[in-house]
């Protein structure tokens, strides 16, 4: 293997519960319920596509700009209070670097938000290549973000390992020609859906290091 590609939210960081809480608070402010099933619909999807989905599903009668502003304000509050890295992730990144294998990030999160979180947790320094959701025209499950990462890494899909926690992310990597995709499971995603999308196996964040020791 020549490279390892990580998604960010839910894989490197325990962020999905934070997104859920932020969206729940915003939905509640409109008098609407927010469910885990609805949250799964937008996991891994770029915000520019996810927010209209939420507005329609919740039947929110407001402008997209107002809704977006309220979401951003709530996310900022929640993330400033509760952001943390997933257990075992730093050790996994250190292991990959010790093998002199390239590391890349492929996240649907916009660059400014992603870098703020990566820097707060001191994770940015591990990555040779990073591609963000606002740097591609088509978000996951379209393969564009993975094709761009592969191009910048200058590696072929057969020489890459991917860790993703969303159905759309697994589908994006699969459509880019990558076969060795591991589905990272947590309390808010659906492991069965990851396998159906093409993940070769399911792992918890703290198990990523053991997987890397086997495949690198």
From TrEMBL:
Coiled-coil ranges (or none): none
Q: Pfam family of this protein, just one?
A: HAD_2
The UniProt transmembrane annotation reads: none
In which domain of life is the source organism classified? Answer: Bacteria
Q: Which UniProt keywords apply?
A: Hydrolase
The molecular function terms in GO held by this entry are: hydrolase activity
- InterPro entries this protein is in? HAD-like_sf, HAD-SF_hydro_IA, HAD_2, HAD_sf, PGP-like_dom2
Do the record's keywords include GTP-binding? Answer: no
The record ties this protein, via PANTHER family, to: 2-DEOXYGLUCOSE-6-PHOSPHATE PHOSPHATASE 2, PSEUDOURIDINE-5'-PHOSPHATASE
| Protein's recorded name | HAD-superfamily hydrolase, subfamily IA, variant 3
């Amino acid at each position: 293997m020549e490279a390892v590609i990580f998604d960010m939210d839910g894989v490197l960081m325990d962020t999905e519960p934070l997104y859920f809480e932020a969206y729940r608070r915003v939905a509640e402010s409109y008098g609407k319920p927010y469910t885990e099933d609805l949250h799964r619909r937008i996991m891994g999807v770029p915000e520019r596509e996810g927010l209209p989905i939420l507005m329609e599903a919740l039947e929110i009668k407001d402008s997209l700009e107002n809704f977006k502003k309220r979401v951003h304000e709530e996310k900022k509050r929640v993330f400033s209070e509760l952001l943390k890295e997933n257990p075992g992730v730093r050790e996994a990144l250190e292991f990959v670097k010790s093998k002199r294998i390239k590391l890349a990030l492929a996240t649907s999160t916009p660059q400014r938000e992603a870098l703020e979180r990566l820097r707060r947790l001191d994770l940015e320094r591990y990555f040779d290549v990073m591609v963000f959701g606002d740097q591609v025209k088509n978000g996951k499950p379209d393969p564009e973000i993975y094709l761009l990462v592969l191009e910048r890494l200058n590696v072929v899909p057969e020489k890459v390992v991917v860790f993703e926690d969303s159905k759309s992310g697994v589908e994006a990597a699969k459509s880019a020609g990558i076969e060795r995709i591991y589905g990272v499971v947590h309390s808010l995603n659906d492991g069965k859906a990851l396998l159906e999308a093409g993940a070769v196996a399911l792992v918890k964040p703290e198990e990523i290091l053991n997987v890397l020791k086997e495949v690198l």
